[in-house]
Queue: 2 jobs
Job 1
Amino acid sequence: GAVVSQHPSWVICKSGTSVKIECRSLDFQATTMFWYRQFPKQSLMLMATSNEGSKATYEQGVEKDKFLINHASLTLSTLTVTSAHPEDSSFYICSARPDTGWVNTEAFFGQGTRLTVV
Amino acid sequence: KQEVTQIPAALSVPEGENLVLNCSFTDSAIYNLQWFRQDPGKGLTSLLLIQSSQREQTSGRLNASLDKSSGRSTLYIAASQPGDSATYLCAVREAAGNKLTFGGGTRVLVKP
């Protein structure tokens, strides 16, 4: 199946600093990628939809100025958590769906990034 | 607004027993439904994808059924093994858009 690579897999940062998470589709192009957040023992909550070449679409309640999304190419989307605080500590997962091909309706997920803000 | 529910939230079975995981959704206007497996602290692994026009999909010991009219899907795992221990998530893709709506997941423990 298609592969989505997410980096880093974990990161610890100080309160007030910014952290960038990368999501890459390794063997397919993805005009659209998705960013999710998952708190312990809870399900995934969609934060935003990342669109190549245009602004991301944020879900209700998600601060776009705090969670900056850049989708600069058809294989890379980045999520930057700005001025991170302990309550931002969570598991962040990206997803991508290939633009074309026989798997064009299946979503593939990265391995996730564990963010801990101290 | 689409809501996806998974019952039970947790399940413990002895090795060899068949697993039955349930997923229900409130809006039947879906494009497809996908079952995932998530190990602790890891990302999601896609298990099965069922298109809205299909009634079931099979892969090895896994079988997933879909009854769109009643808003239900069931994942069957035959002859469970300790390695099947994980959280299983179902997600629906609505016909109108791209995003997936997830259920809360079922945490499965298969005891040797």
Job 2
Amino acid sequence: DIQMTQSPSSLSVSLGDNVTFTCEASENIYGFLAWYQQKLGKAPKLLIYGATNLEDGVPTRFSGSGSWTNYSLTISSLEPEDIATYYCQNNHVYPPTFGAGTKLELK
Amino acid sequence: EVQLQQSGPELQRPGASVKLSCKASGYTFTEYYMYWVKQRPKQGLELIGRIDPEDCSTDYVEKFKNKATLTADTSSNTAYMQLSSLTSEDTATYFCARGYNSGYPMDAWGQGASVTVSS
């Protein structure tokens, strides 16, 4: 199975910050990378697929980049509703493995 | 509107079995895989497996092969997951999520079903 490593595991942030966190796959996943947002007590929500494509309805302050094994998610000008845990996921091969998550916390 | 409506919370004794449901609406049930994902308290997301409702073929992550059984009923557009021989390690929230095919993300999720295993 492809291993997905996210860093950092948690991040202390302030509203208005530009925030970037990363995800590394154990092998090339050819851009088949998704990002999910999970708020406390809720189901995950798809934000980005294919490494860079914004899901319908997701604010444009979210953006994804990367290729091969290294990917990142950037949130520009952090809003209060962005406080959540973010997971990356390999969609290249089955099983679609998740990273351990990056949890955003307010300073 | 695509919706996945999951069954309610369960409290079960160790050694028991439980069957969770996930009723799909707003799309053609047989055109998407249904995945099941486990999340233990304050932990990350862990894939259990998936079912193709068109032919009921299944793929399981190895560690869940003797724990979970996935089924689907196309007459009611409902996917099911049975968990057997429950232990405290099975205490978790379980999500169903649809995915179009391999290579595609999980673009719609159920609200989650809590399972608590306690004597």
